[in-house]
Design goal:
With 293 residues, the chain is α+β, with helices and mostly antiparallel strands. It has three domains: 125 residues, Roll (Mac-2 Binding Protein), CATH 3.10.250; 104 residues, Immunoglobulin-like, CATH 2.60.40.10; 48 residues, no CATH class. 18% of the residues lie in helices and 36% in strands. The chain is built from six helices and 18 strands. Strands 9, 11, 12, 14, 15 and 16 form a six-stranded mixed beta sheet that branches. Helix 1 packs parallel to helix 3. The longest helix has 14 residues. The protein is elongated and about 80 Å long. The N and C termini lie far apart (87 Å).
């Protein structure tokens, strides 16, 4: 059974050698991969040998399989090993193993890699199976500002919606929206429909101010998996006042007869119209002159 031990020793050495290889040599990701499933962090373990991808076979000594799975997940940046299974595959003509007599003769491990009859091959599932979900916020007209360095701002009383989504990998699952403020934490869960979920807030209040994140949850391959988005910071501004200008006032700045809207916060003055500085100045002047509300 020496060839089995040396074979798995080669696998472990190759998986752990990426940080020690010289420039120009293959990294672990180029030498090993998991294939056969929608995620790159699950599937059949294969090793690249002489330009060809070959399956890695398992052994009855399960500790070797677990060590191989753990090393594969770690070196592929897929977290930790969740499960490893040995699966017989009749379509596999040959697999790779190590000749024990070759190793005993003093040759390097790479020179002792040979093809052998197909044993069971390894199917590995890693903890980072899922992609990272996305989180975004939208609001009613004039109700959400541009993204600020610290996050997003919405007007008090405006309707806003937080959306969670993820790139398609597996069907089903659910999204949990987690809200954290200075003194509380709340969770709300919606099923994933077309790989997304939407959480509606009818009227923004100071109590909605805080950090939000989306957690995608999925039960698959007899295990529970989850993946969390980045944090979205939301602040709620004071009461909104809207000033509208008629045709005569607007014609001083443009030949267009459209209306413009300026929004003024109680804490600060901001115009949410993407025009020139002249338009912005006109809005401020209108506020000072108590133009029509």
């Amino acid at each position: 059974m020496l060839h089995l031990d040396m074979y798995h020793l080669l696998v472990l050495l190759l998986l752990c050698s990426s940080g020690l290889q010289a420039e120009g040599e293959h990294t672990s990701r180029e030498s090993f991969r998991l294939v056969g499933r929608p995620s790159r962090c699950a599937g059949t373990l294969k090793v690249k040998e002489n330009g060809e991808w070959r399956p890695v076979y398992g052994v009855f000594y399960s500790d070797w399989n677990l060590k191989t799975a753990a090393a594969a997940c770690r070196e592929l940046d897929c977290g930790s090993a969740v499960s490893v299974e040995e699966r017989e595959e009749s379509s596999v003509r040959s697999v790779l193993w190590i000749r024990s007599d070759c190793v005993e003769s003093g040759s390097t491990l790479r020179k002792c890699v040979v093809s052998g009859p197909p044993y069971s091959i390894l199917d590995i599932t890693c903890s980072d199976l899922l992609l990272q979900p996305n989180i975004s916020v939208s609001s009613s007209m004039d109700g959400v500002s541009e993204a600020q360095q610290q996050g997003f701002q919405v007007f008090r009383g405006s309707t806003f919606n937080i959306s969670c989504s993820i790139q398609p990998q597996y069907p089903g699952g659910s999204f949990q929206l987690t809200f954290t403020s200075s003194n509380s934490t709340h969770n709300s869960t919606h099923p994933a429909v077309n790989h997304s979920a939407h959480f509606l807030f009818p009227a923004a209040e100071p109590a909605h101010q805080g950090n939000y994140s989306c957690v995608y949850q999925l039960y698959i391959f007899s295990h529970n998996f989850s993946s969390e988005s980045h944090l979205l910071s939301l602040t709620v501004s004071g009461k909104r006042t809207v000033y509208r200008f008629g045709k005569d006032d607007w014609s001083k700045l443009s030949r267009n007869d459209q209306l413009i809207t300026c929004c003024f916060w109680t804490e600060a003055v901001t115009c949410y119209i993407a025009y020139s500085n002249q338009t912005y100045t006109k809005c401020l002047m209108a506020r000072a002159n108590n133009k029509v509300k």
